[in-house]
Amino acid sequence: MSLNPTPGLPEFEYIKPASLDEASRFLAAHPDTARPFLGGTDTFVRMRDGVWKDRYLVDVKHLAGMDDLVFNPQTGLTIGAAVNMNRVIRSDVVNQHYPLLAQAAQTVAGYQLRTRATIVGNVCNASPAGDTIGACLALNGRLRVFGAGKTREEPLSSFFIGPGKTTLQKGDIVTAVSFPAPPPNAVGQYIKLNRNNMGDLSIVGVTVFGYPDGDTASGYRFRLALASVAPVPLVPAAAEAILARQPITEETIAQAAQAAMDAASPISDTRGSAEYRKMMVRNLTAKGITAVWRKLNA
Predict the structure, then answer these.
(1) For residues 45 and 41, what is the distance between their CA atoms, to the nearest angstrom?
(2) Cβ contact 123:136 at 8 Å
(3) 109-134, pLDDT tens digit by residue?
(4) pLDDT at 38
(5) Distance between CA atoms of 276 and 291, rounded to whole angstroms?
(6) How many Å apart are CA 168 and CA 171, to the nearest integer?
């Protein structure tokens, strides 16, 4: 018996529904054999490798609203599920009001893949290493989901329940991700540690988002998110609390970084050991907070 080192895609049926309702009903009727399809950057790899064995791919990227990128100063930003990452990176609106999101998207793979990859796809893939998920969490992202004939919103803060697992139900289709208007004078930073600069998965990813807030003892609010260090994208709440209740000093930043490290529960794999990842959480969190703090006070 010989093994094929480069297996091809298995046979599947391509479904192109005319509406969200039609797509949702088809997915609900084939709960174990159908999957919604956008850019396919994860889908095709997993089907090729035999991880996913779906018979039907339901193409939803052409449906109404999927390609919208809309900003309103009062209500914020909406990015349709089919908007690719290169479009997000090039968007003047995103770079002016949500530069953290563009920065995170820029770290995903290479240019060619980003012409297919989407923010919504990256989120729904629910990988603990997802590069744009931290920015989406820090920016208080919410998903717009169509299912059972109606549209609802789901906050990202409760969306992830395990590696590759989310709160989505059979028949659900995510149509967009939306973000409220950012706080005035907000600053963000995404730091990705990987093995090379050619689009590798993160060993550790640290997102830091900060802004002035008169309701905190420190006068500032920081939102943090960690990638590749827990079964789901991790928000280290204890670290955020330290930065809210104490004056921002080198000692406070060190305490917050230690709290982030303590919250992490990474595994060892081919990209790095658990011990190394925990130490890098501490170091990169301190680096990210310091960078954001300096920008806030420039």
Answers:
(1) 7
(2) yes
(3) 888 989 999 999 999 999 999 999 99
(4) 86
(5) 22
(6) 8
Give yes or no for residue 284 having a pLDDT over 50.
yes
* Domains of the chain with bracketed CATH: 13-59 (3.30.43), 69-179 (3.30.465.10), 187-296 (3.30.390.50)
Please report, as a single letter, which amino acid is at residue 154.
Answer: E
289: tokens are 């907070």
Residue with the larger pLDDT of the pair 241 and 197: 241
Strand order through the sheet with 150-155: 69-72, 76-80, 173-179, 142-147, 150-155
The b/e string for 175-199 (b: 16+ C-beta within 10 A; e otherwise) is bbbbbeebeeebbbbbbbbbeeeee
Q: Give the number of C-alpha atoms closer than 13 A to the C-alpha of residue 157, restricted to the C-beta side.
A: 9
Q: pLDDT tens digits for 176-217?
A: 999 999 999 999 999 999 876 656 678 999 999 999 999 999
272 versus 282: the higher-pLDDT residue is: 282
C-alpha dist (Å) from residue 25 to 61, 119, 168: 16, 24, 15
How many helical (H) and strand (E) elements, i.e. helices and strands, does the chain have? 11, 13
Average pLDDT of 135-145? 98
Indicate yes or no: pTM above 0.85. yes
Q: With CA atoms as reference, report the closest residue to 161 among 201, 126, 131, 135.
A: 126
Phi-psi map region of 252: left, alpha, beta (phi>0 left; psi -120 to 50 alpha): alpha
> Which of 181, 241, 188 has its CA nearest to residue 211?
188
